[in-house]
User: Fold this.
Amino acid sequence: MAARGTEVRPGRAPLGPRTAVDLDLSPLPRRFFSRPTLEVARDLLGRLLVRRLGDRLVGGWIVEAEAYIGEEDPACHAAVGRTERNTVMYGPSGHAYVYFSYGQHHCVNVVTGGRGRPEAVLIRALQPAIGQEFMRRRRGARTAELDLTRGPGRLCQALGIDLCLNGAKFHAAADPSAPLALARGRGRPEILGVSARIGIRRGLEYPWRFYDAESPWVSRARPIGSRSGVLKKNPG
DNA sequence: ATCCGGATCGCCT
DNA sequence: GGCGATCCGGATG
Assistant:
């Protein structure tokens, strides 16, 4: 099992140069979603989540994600078995599981695990990349850049994601009929952070939250369980 | 029909 | 860091 902490990777500067490569809108292959859910969760970091609103695209780089893995995971919505609410998680991977939380917020997941295995990755935070002016229209004109998409409820509000998109398939961003898409984007962060998942009561023993340890858009700078709040750059 | 808890956020202190 | 808002899904009667 992966340990809590961070992992250093060589390469691109953390908040690095904004190049055309960072905005790579080419689609993720179908097999992307058919891998083990923990692998998909890590690999979603740096990818682009894109929402099409009419002819406009709004989206950002995923900087934080959490895995929820099946009926045996006490924090997974499928821990109570199959219900009408969680039924999308039991379907094919590569679709969106959207739910409503605390009376005011939507949260979006990428379904993984394949038919009959209710697994998903919750997208917890984005760095805005495309259509910030539309995000502000939804989040409030004076919303700080950092507050547009930091947190699962905020990012859904910024991108206009609600229960209407529950079950929608993630298509290619170039598909003019696709309301939701995932694209290659800039890829993995330089420093991968790992921690327990946030906002849950059970399942805290599983380090299934992954984040870009250098991104200020991560929803909580200090992961649960970190003592100092200082992330090590060279754990080895 | 009614009750209750929740993968949260924003505002207050 | 505490708390109220607010509504949906699921469980119970």
About this structure: DSSP finds three helices and nine strands in chain A. The first helix of chain A runs from residue 37 to 44.
